[in-house]
Amino acid sequence: MFRLRHRWLAVLGRSGAERQYHGLTPMCRGAAGVTNRDRLLVRQLEPNLVRPTVLASGLFWERHRKGGYQTEQRASTKDLIVNGLKELRTEFALFQQEWKEKLESDPLVVFRPGEIDVVFGFESQPDLDRWVVTTDRDHGEGYSQAALERSPAGFGLFHGTLESRVPKDGRIKRAGYANIKSLRVRKSFKRDAFYDWSQYNTLVLKVRGDGRSYLINLTAEGYYDILWNDIYHYVLYTRGGPHWQVAKIPFSKFFLASKGRVQDQQGPVPLNRITNVGFSVGSRGGHEGSFRLEFDFIGVEFDPSHQEEFAYEMYRQPKYIVAT
């Protein structure tokens, strides 16, 4: 019975050291009848056993996003402690704010039909620091330039120059894009979090554009690595000139793509798992030159008059059949 119990523990996913340790008989791990070989084996296995701690029990600890495939060098324990103490005050402040919002979050008060809840503002430099700007130049694939700065009027200004000229490496065939993407939302102590917009059905933007079309990107990372590139897109059409426009786009209009390819299997946006929001602009089709998109705010809204769940028809075909 003793050996059978520990055999099941090994099947349930224990480490190699635990499987060997629990595979020993009680006599081997006790004081009576133990041999020198058994003592040496126990001494070698015991330090390798995982000892449960407060952090490892699930309070603050989270497993690595890449599982066993991470390749970066892990910092020493001393560096981890020093860096952690520096951020401890900030993280506890975020932890306190989380619980305050959780206790005050009454759906009857928070989600009011017809009212816009601002998610991203652009009134100060910390608001702009929540975004990352990338172009083809950053990856050595082109010569475009872009920046996100405060405009003279005090708003967020995404501007730059697009070039379709490619490096002479014989590999890259197209170039000319710029993109801004919000930082991954996180809770205190660097824990992963998501934007939960399940109570809303419309994305609202107040922008001032240059007449170009921009691509709106909603990132919804899945649990498995094959789903980390899933992004939901829709086009933001802008007007030129000095006037602001308020664009209201239902979430039902967004379509799924992965690495720039529209997927055959479509479905509604998982609004409870949004991790990033982004905007892209490209020079494909001869649209080179400068671009300019000014932001006042980005928000979400629940529109009671919008009842559509998904805008695109899907035809279910038998397995292995693409078209008839």
UniProtKB/TrEMBL annotation:
Domain spans labelled NADH:ubiquinone oxidoreductase intermediate-associated protein: 120-294
Presence of the UniProt keyword Cell inner membrane in the record: no
A biological process from GO: mitochondrial respiratory chain complex I assembly
Keywords linked to the UniProt accession: Chaperone, Mitochondrion
Transmembrane portions of the chain: none
GO terms for cellular component: mitochondrion
InterPro entries: Galactose-bd-like_sf (IPR008979), NADH-UbQ_OxRdtase-assoc_prot30 (IPR013857), NDUFAF1 (IPR039131)
Subcellular location: Mitochondrion
Gene Ontology MF: a single term: unfolded protein binding
Family: Belongs to the CIA30 family.
Identification of the protein by name: AGAP000842-PA
The species this protein was found in: Anopheles gambiae
Gene behind this protein: 1277355
